Amino acid sequence: MTDRSDFNDLAQSTAPGDGTEAVRRILGVAFEHAKGLVPRASEKAAAARHGKASDIAAADESGTATSADSTTPATMAGDEFELRRDGVSPGVWRLKWERTKAGKFECVEQFVCAPLEITHMVRDRNDDEWKRLVQFCNHDRRMRRVMVADEMLEGDGLALARLLRAKGLYIGDNKGGLLKMYVNQSRPVARARLTRRIGWHEDVHDPSRWSFVLPDEREPIAADGAELWLFDQQGSGHAKFASAGTLAEWQQHVARLAIGNSRLLFALSTGFAAGLCWLHPNIPGGFHWAGGSSLGKSALLYATASLCGPPSYRRTWLMTATGVEWSAAGHCDAPYLLDELKQAGNPRDVAQAAYMLASGQGKSRGQAAGGLRDTAEFRLLFQSNGEIGLRQFLEESREKSYAGQEVRFCEIPGDAGAGLGAWENLHGHADGARFSEAVQSEAARYYGTAYCAFLSSVVIERETLQREFDKMRQQFESAHLTEKAGGQAIRAATRFAAVGFAGEMATEWGITGWKSGDAVGAAKRMFTDWLHAFGGEENREPRRMVEQVRDWINANAPSRLADWRRKSDDHAPRTENQAGWRRPTKDTAHLTNDEQVFEYLIYPGAFRAELANGFDPEQVAKELSRRGCLEHDKARLMVKVREPGAPKPTWFYLITPAIKGGEDD
Question: Domains in the chain, please, with CATH?
């Protein structure tokens, strides 16, 4: 008996109507049908085009069959799917032509799922990790976009069905396999790129075209003709963009309150500047608002959060080092706001974060199969606040702070000095506390419009921004620094200049409603305040070296340095863990004990391990010598002295009484 479902059997059959000609007819009709030239003989298909709308749940999931004349065979090689967006039975339907025992052909239809469209083939920057971008309306009729990894198109389709059901897609009973077949057969021409971070992205083949990738399912802000970049990162650490109210309302109720308030002007301008970190490598880093409770420091972060979203846009320092790393990656090129430094659990995590947030790269981690996992990358201009600064926080926790941390984590006094906390202009409110409440209240009502408007303007004006910023940066540095300025002050000045520049651009583009010059004026004020707190424009390390040696001498000289005057006194108190000697200078040795001035002979081992701890001992000695605090031979930064009881002279670091002078001596 001939198996008419097998082309080989059909071609060899000698029955009437069979043979090679029958195979040719079937393939010809199938080919024309695949091109859409043969109408589907289905009452349901006709109803979908011309009938009434009905609830999708009423669709017949068991499938229907429509007969065709036996002289018009329409056997399909495989399954075909039809997407019906509206009509009587909207959804994805499986269509399959089958030949009955009577020799007729039937189109059997099966409902698969609610309308589901595959819009793009998606891959990463290296043309790997291929996925399909699907979109549909969930049960609340809200449009959703979901990435479906091609690896999910293997197997029985259960994993795919679970994924899309969780996102709200209505799927027929046990239709995971058909759903998988439908997605797999859909290969749209449109392409998109995949990324696991938000922020600016260059086109792979045309770097002159930029896109700003937004989190969740939001469309990127992009130049005309730019590649479509899509965000695909699981978890909740990324920035939560949302909007309420209009840009005009945000200007009236939030931005207006910054007029006359230098710190609020600066905080909002810093938020805008987060999108301009690409202008100069010294811009990434952050600012820390430090000062007592109830100054209004938190209100500064509330206002900045309103650029992108509600108050919940802010984060807190209550995170592990890994949490800070991935949270930072989720805020690339966007404001990153960390509330209350005291909440940080591990001081070492904060110390590492100060470098990591400015460097733009997380920790490298190995993977089980060998090699390294993908490393988190980001560009950030963050803001933090707390009752104490970074240095005090670390020292209270017995952790050493470094100048490199402090210049990346620029500490600004939260108190504006007008007796009103962080404010200078209360805009009619009774006191600083009431004004802080007003800022927080308005920021919670109107938010999420300003930053996207700023980014849209950056896309348009990108070509001119670099030149304009370079000009402003040079003017800013010339106005506030001298030729003696160290690299740390210059680096910080670039960041402050970027904040002023971003605020001025936002004003020029009609986003803030401020007057020209307000933002840069606030940046100049904050830089002056920071420079004063930093101790001047010279690099901090040399001063910290001298401070550390001075602090050690003040704390340990009486107990750790033996008294040279009592070198032969058997009744002299014993010096425990001796680190050297203290002896009167030649000029004062003849005076009474109260009038004598001491110099300090320090063993080299103690100098390296304690006095120069955390620094290069050679550099510490050179700085002490430069300031007149160290006597030494011409060839070495030490002197040879025979200490009491020693058979021959040995090397010492000879620290002079000048170490007791003021910090700037």
Answer: 32-113 (no CATH), 117-199 (no CATH), 247-364+375-534 (3.40.50), 541-660 (no CATH)
